[in-house]
TrEMBL record, chain A:
Keywords, ordered alphabetically: 4Fe-4S, Amino-acid biosynthesis, Flavoprotein, FMN, Glutamate biosynthesis, Iron, Iron-sulfur, Metal-binding, NADP, Oxidoreductase
Domain 4Fe-4S ferredoxin-type: 8-37, 39-68
Transmembrane segments: none
Family: Belongs to the glutamate synthase family.
Taxonomic lineage from the root: Archaea, Methanobacteriati, Methanobacteriota, Stenosarchaea group, Candidatus Methanofastidiosia
GO aspect biological process, one term: glutamate biosynthetic process
Name of this chain's protein: Archaeal glutamate synthase [NADPH]
EC number: 1.4.1.13
CDD domains: GltS_FMN
InterPro entries xref list: 4Fe4S_Fe-S-bd, 4Fe4S_Fe_S_CS, Aldolase_TIM, GltB, GltB_archl_type, Glu_synthdom
Cofactor(s), names only, from the UniProt record: FMN
TrEMBL record, chain B:
Stored Pfam families: Fer4
Domain spans labelled 4Fe-4S ferredoxin-type: 3-32, 83-112
Keyword Oxidoreductase in annotation: no
Species in which this protein is naturally found: Candidatus Methanofastidiosum methylothiophilum
Keywords attached to this entry: 4Fe-4S, Electron transport, Iron, Iron-sulfur, Metal-binding, Repeat, Transport
Record protein name field: Hydrogenase MvhADGHdrABC F420-non-reducing hydrogenase subunit B
PROSITE patterns: 4FE4S_FER_1, 4FE4S_FER_2
Molecular function per GO: 4 iron, 4 sulfur cluster binding; metal ion binding; oxidoreductase activity
SUPFAM superfamilies membership: 4Fe-4S ferredoxins
Length: 502, 142
């Protein structure tokens, strides 16, 4: 007998229930069971993970999923979550696993920053009447440029480092085929190509079906080196070396053998049915010099035509690490904050490791400026970007672009039940079960992602207009357009922004 | 105008909401709760839902160019009107020959009369297509 009290209560209103059994058919956790003999839908609360699929599919709104408020006596120090965790561990002897990003009540600095707007002396611009530029180039920028003039035509003499062109400073962050379904990957890829931006393969390799989106693909190379070959390097528009992930800094990845289907095994280039283990470190990277070797190797292999990204989790001494990464020759640095998501991580790591992206971004941008190497690298902020406002604030703090993944999953149906690691995702996202993966029609998924980013683009243009600027370039690293509210002097100093009223 | 409802079984999630909405649309009250819980006269759904292991999908009348049901009907109760196959219930005697010959299993036995999908001729888009949560049901008109 389990001593864990159910987290949710599934309430069915009998006056509204028409016994169509949609709930029975849709719940992959088998919360509902129909007994024909008694014409009864029996509900098992203990199996409910709170994903709300049944609630949304029920045609008569007969179902309500509520939090079990009777969950243990209220205790400020010993929360119901803590008590249940201890009980689960006492029963199983294992680590508590979880999915998606850190959900604990740490401060969100995005919510402590306000944007500036123009009044009287510096007039705002109407984005509906005047063009607004969101185009962004990621890659190393030269110290200076020289121009040459021939027969009255001016051209660039300086040879530029490889750049990738984004029509919007929003990209889709790394999620591997394996952690998410192929339909989800295809939705992201096709949305990225429609939007003129990029998505990231995660460490899942590139499925044959997705090669056609190569121009909008960032190929990741992580510690397991899954799916990396010449075709992969040739097809992707940029290559990302993943050192760490915001949700689980210092922790590797583990795709259990039962999820490694034939197609995944072909894409990852490993035997089917075997565990795909990404080690915690890259076993050939133990120093900045080692990282430099891998970056050089990739550049050599791709004929110096593709920018190389290096992704690190935001941790205590990120600024010094970032400086090393620039000196190792990376074209783009990706910083993943502690709110970033994951397909599976030990709860204790996800909830207690890393630092906020706002802080890491501010200190890295400042450090690189102080060392006069900021132009040698573009910075991408990732991990918990919830809205266009967060994205704009990130850019004002110094980011060149942002990565979104949790927001993208939500657009495709995710309700953040945090059970990605179970492989039974009711929305067909984080699962490989063929019955469940078909719940995401890539055509619909891609449309919803495109809508999301387009609406954020509109909002970003509106914000820029209100600030009286007509290009995202003019906002980048412009911390004067930010003000803090409710920040201590030290917090303001670290973020490099003035407090409201200053 | 020929109307066709096609199911892409790659994306049919087997929720059978198409059946539910079809039933509501063809009920007296057109209200989901009244139709299911209070109305006495109920017909089986016009959709034929089929499932074999992991593959499933809904099939309805395909409005064949040269329908076998018309040939099989001894009463001349079935005709094509504006591209849509229609059963004249006044003429139907319930011999079920149309049910026997339909290659899609799309004609159903009602109370002594055959009936089938009417492609919601009074709606712009058939109700099942409109309510398919994963766009597995697609609608073509030409």
């Amino acid at each position: 007998m389990s001593s864990v009290i159910p987290e949710f209560i599934v309430d069915k209103n009998e006056d509204r229930c028409i016994k169509c059994k949609v709930c029975v058919r849709q719940c992959s956790e088998e919360v509902f069971k129909y007994f024909e003999e008694f014409d009864l839908i029996r509900i098992y609360n203990d199996k409910c993970v709170g994903c709300h699929r049944c609630e949304m599919m029920c045609p008569t709104d007969a179902l309500t999923i509520t939090k079990n408020n009777a969950l243990y006596k209220e205790n400020f120090h010993w929360s119901s979550y803590t008590i249940n965790s201890i009980k689960k561990q006492a029963e199983t002897g294992g680590m508590i696993l979880t999915g998606s990003g850190n959900d604990k009540a740490y401060v969100s600095y995005w919510d402590r920053m306000l944007l500036d707007a123009s009044q009287v002396t510096n007039p705002p611009i109407d984005p509906l009447r005047e063009p607004m530029e969101l185009r962004t180039y990621l890659g190393k920028k030269p110290d200076r440029i020289t121009l040459k003039e021939e027969n009255g035509e001016v051209s660039l003499e300086t040879k530029l480092s490889p750049q990738i062109k984004l029509e919007t400073p929003i990209m889709f962050s790394a999620m591997s085929y394996g952690s998410i379904s192929l339909n989800a990957c295809e939705s992201l890829a096709s949305a990225a190509s429609k939007l003129g931006t990029f998505y990231n393969t995660g460490e899942g390799g590139l499925h044959k079906k997705l090669y056609k989106y190569g121009k909008n693909t960032i190929g990741q190379i992580a510690s397991g080196r899954f799916g990396v070959d010449t075709d992969y390097l040739d097809t992707c528009a940029a290559i990302e070396i993943k050192i760490g992930q915001g949700a689980k800094p210092g922790i590797g990845g583990h795709l259990p053998g039962e999820k490694v289907t034939v197609e995944i095994s072909e894409t990852r280039m490993i035997p089917s049915g075997t565990d795909a283990i990404s080690p915690a470190p890259h076993h050939d990277i133990y120093s900045i010099e080692d990282l430099k070797q891998l970056i050089s190797l990739i550049k050599e292999a791709t004929n110096y035509e593709k920018p190389v990204f290096v992704k690190i989790a935001a941790v205590h001494n990120s600024a010094a690490i970032a400086s090393g990464i620039v000196r190792a020759g990376a074209d783009v640095i990706v910083i993943d904050g502690f709110r970033g998501g994951t397909g599976a991580a030990p709860s204790v790591i996800r909830d207690n490791t890393g630092i906020p992206i706002e802080v890491a971004l501010a200190v890295i941008d400042q450090r690189l400026r102080d060392e006069s190497i900021r132009n040698e690298v573009s910075i991408v902020a990732a991990g918990g970007i919830r809205s266009s406002a967060d994205a704009v604030k990130a850019m004002a703090l110094g980011a060149d672009a942002v990565y979104i993944a949790t927001a993208a999953l939500i657009a495709m149906g995710c309700t953040l039940c945090q059970k990605c690691y179970k492989g039974k995702c009711n929305w067909g996202l984080t699962t490989q079960d063929p019955v469940l993966t078909r719940r995401l029609n890539p055509e619909l998924g891609s449309q919803r992602l495109t809508n999301l980013v387009n609406s954020w683009n509109l909002e970003i243009k509106e914000i820029l207009g209100s600030m009286g600027i007509n290009a995202i370039e003019a906002l980048r690293g412009n911390r004067l357009r930010l003000r803090g509210v409710g920040l201590t002097e030290l917090e303001s100093k670290i973020l490099g922004i003035e407090h409201a009223g200053m | 105008m020929k109307r066709r409802i096609i199911c892409n079984e790659d994306f049919c999630i087997g929720c059978r909401l198409c059946e539910v909405h079809c039933n509501v649309k063809h009920s007296k009250s057109r209200d989901i709760i009244l139709a299911y819980k209070y109305e006495k006269e109920k017909e089986p759904s016009r959709m034929t839902f089929e499932q074999k292991e992991q593959v499933c999908g809904s099939i309805v009348c395909m409005n064949c160019k040269d329908p076998l049901c018309i040939k099989a009907c001894s009463m001349g109760a079935i005709k094509i009107e504006d591209g849509t196959v229609i059963i004249d219930t006044d003429r139907c005697v319930g011999c079920w020959m149309c049910v026997m010959v339909c290659p899609f299993g799309a004609i159903k036995r009602g109370d002594k009369k055959a009936f089938k999908c009417d492609h919601c001729h009074d709606e712009e888009v058939p109700i099942c297509v409109l309510n398919c949560p994963n766009k597995a049901l697609m609608y073509e008109a030409d």
